[in-house]
Records
---
Amino acid sequence: MSQTHRTQNKPANATDDGRSENLRDSPMMAHLLDALEARTDIGHYGCLTFVMIARHFLPENKIVDLLSHQPDVTAEDAHGLVVQVKGHNYNPPKRERILQWQSQQDFPICPTPDEPGTCNVYSELRFPDDIYDHINDFWEAEASHKSEE
């Protein structure tokens, strides 16, 4: 992550609003990282969620390495998923989307789905500013489209 979000006296993972630049400060991402490191099958949507979020915090080769230990996922497959997510510039999924995807597989992407407010990476992690700009542009376009109908 670039140094542009940091001040000289501030730790690398701290932000003024309590969000972090360390993936492990998100309980859901720590859960996914632990499962990946243990070579536990996190499912297709677990992999997709992981890439959509981790690509903003980890080097591509680390993401590919972690995913390539999933059942039926080669390093080439893992790299392809990263390239696809980057190519489409997918935003990190909101909690509701994560829970929707989780219902379609066995592995619990969100380890605490019954606790409101959990598994919301936007409140836990500090993403690059362009992510927030992209989200704002999307909602402005949606509002404009609906007003034209």
---
Amino acid sequence: MVAVVVVGSVPRLLDSLLVKTSSRLPQSERLRLIRDSVTGFIEAQRPHAVVVEGQFFHQQKAVAFKVGQAFGVVMLCAADLGVPVFEFGPLQVKQTLVGTGRADKAQVAYMVRALLKLPAAPASDHVSDAIALALTHLQSRRVQALANGAP
């Protein structure tokens, strides 16, 4: 999870949280840890929106099922706290940040670093992906505002 804010017209990274759970724990305990972490992060950061990656497909059905459960927990946490959830697919993120839906992870990470003026790319691909989703949402809001006649 990340918190990004726009100062003037420049996006800034406020905070990030990478939730890791042990595969040795029962799935119900892992989901509880995710719930507690996500709820705490949302309560601390008080975001205007939660953005998630949609269109997730995985070859291994068991992994896809567990990821789907975690996805549902995140959406439920946001709903419980009254925060709207927006979804963007990987192609939309790549198109928005890099200009092509065929961009690779390194290109997306480079744009994340450049747009936020970070000294280095985030250490985790998951954090980089979360920032990319947040930046895509911010750009989407900007485009929508322009379409509605806002300056």
